[in-house]
Each structure stands twice: as C-alpha cells, then as structure tokens.
Design goal:
With 71 residues, this protein is mostly beta strands.
C-alpha cells in the first residue's frame, strides 16, 4: 500500500537553534548551515531560513526557538 502525506512548510515551528539563548530577540533572523542542515543565528556563510516569532507567553529555553518560515 502507498501512503501519501501533505506537509506544511510555512508557519511557526519550534526548532533547535544551537546558538540561541533566552535573550534572543523577537524577529531575529535564523539561518541554515547548508553543510549540516543545522540552524544558527550566525549569518556569515549561511542561508536565511526564517525569523524568530515568539507567541504570547512563550516560555523561552536555550537552544530552542519558534521560527517563522514562509508566509
């Protein structure tokens, strides 16, 4: 049997960003390191991926960010 799935690529997703801290600003640009597909806040040599999008009352944690992708 074949299974099909639909995935959303736009929206806000909670993702690991190793260089993030609880002090990471709302709207900060998040980049992807193409060699490893890891996310970072470091622009140099990396590709823009999305922006930090904290929902109201979001509990901040080091290393994890809500990242808005797409629309």
């Amino acid at each position: 049997a074949t299974l099909d799935a639909t995935l959303a690529y736009d929206g806000t997703w909670e993702l690991p960003v190793a260089t993030s801290t609880t002090a990471t600003a709302q709207g900060a640009q998040v980049y992807i390191i193409t060699a490893s597909n890891a996310l970072t806040l470091v622009a140099s040599g990396n590709t823009a991926y999305g922006r930090v999008d904290y929902p109201l009352d979001y509990k901040k944690v080091n290393g994890i960010l809500p990242v808005r992708i797409g629309a």
